[in-house]
Amino acid sequence: MSEGAPPDTDAQVADDVATAETLPARTFTERRWLERELGSVFARSWQLVPERAADDDPRPLAEQLAARGARVPVTLGGRPLYLQRGWDDDQLRLFPNTCTHAWYPLVLGPSRGPTLVCGQHGRRFDCAGRFVSQPGFQGAPAFPRDCDHLRAMPAAVWRQLVLAALDPAAPPLADVLAPIDASLVHFPDTLIRVASGGEVRDVAGNWKQHAWNFLDPFHIAFVHRAPGGLADAVDLATYTTELFEHAVLQWVYARDPADGFDPAMLPERFADRQGRGRRVFALWWFLYPNLALNFYPWGLSVNVYQPLPDRPDMTRFGWYHWVLDPTRHAERDRRWLSAQVDAEDVDALAQVSRGLRSGFAPRGRFAPGDEQAAHWLHRKVSRDVLAT
Ligand code: FES
Ligand SMILES: [Fe+2]
């Protein structure tokens, strides 16, 4: 904590949603707090590795990394990294894209091979990140040291998405994804990535504002109000929030069954028990801390809210589509109000961002019935940051 900063007691979030206060405004505006989040919340959680720009290579990242020895440079939390498929094994690993000799970047573009050679002084590494050789170091005493090898971090492909964690102490990915997988047992695994322009935007507002907004059904009746808004397209009285350790599911029945899932695509527990033929509009999954996986009858819309180092007031907003049914995907703005909801949210969050910096209303409260998921997010961030 820097000199003169308020004590961290103001950033504790109580366990009971009925009495808890939100994270204070300063945690959405301070650079120092963002740095602490990057070292705790973001280091020890699974992150979506964003797809590369379509004009670099239109293939999904997972496909670019499928071949033995394939490697691709990526950035996570502003840090230079690269993904590497094993040569002697099929393992996908994440490595720092920084040479252990003198910090030159190791991977400048996609490449492939059993070893990689640093472009500055020729240090060679294998696909498991081990130092292999370097001119001038033959016979050097006490060499190589442990830190001359590259530090391997976990990475995996899940349903064609590439996920990675900067700290091996991140919870096991299978545990994190278990409740999501359970909801998708009948969901076809044949999604096709449809790349488009405008998938990555820098938008106003701290990353937590965007994650919070995603987890907030309370605003739907106001920001996405009827007539013509999301509040019209769904039966808000059936809105359901399910909290898990690392994830949250929100789902609701569609007002018009034509906008809903074929019941055969979802587990029995989502069936309309009143026998009124209502169908689920979407499964809105959130994976802590910043990934939204929106499953619709047309496929999957992925949102990732990436913090920008030194810019707590901005978020790099990634939005990627994976399509199951192209006809229904083409109807996403009419039936699922995709563009309209996005525009309404971006506008609302820009307004909130101004309010956060005003110095007024230092902490809010949660509506106990409507804001359990928001409380879940604030509490987890508070705990993760304050534990470090
Ligand atoms: S910086 Fe890589 S070999 Fe010198
Ligand atoms: Fe919204």
Architecture of the largest domain, according to CATH?
Alpha-Beta Complex
Bound molecules: FE2/S2 (inorganic) cluster, fe (ii) ion
CATH superfamily of the largest domain: Naphthalene 1,2-dioxygenase Alpha Subunit, Chain A, domain 1
Rounded average pLDDT? 95
CATH class of the largest domain: Alpha Beta
Task: Give the tally of structural domains.
Answer: 2
Radius of gyration: 22 Å
**How far apart are the first and last residues' alpha carbons, in Å?**
11 Å
Tally the beta strands: 18
Q: Total helix count? A: 10
Helix-residue proportion: 10-25%
Low-confidence stretches: none
Categorize the overall geometry.
globular
Give the percentage of residues in beta strands.
25-35%
What structural category arises from helix and sheet content? alpha+beta
Instruction: Could you tell me the CATH topology label of the largest domain.
Output: Naphthalene 1,2-dioxygenase Alpha Subunit, Chain A, domain 1
Largest sheet: 8 strands, antiparallel
**Element order: H for helix, E for strand:** HEHEEEEEEEEEHEEHHHEEEEEEHHHH
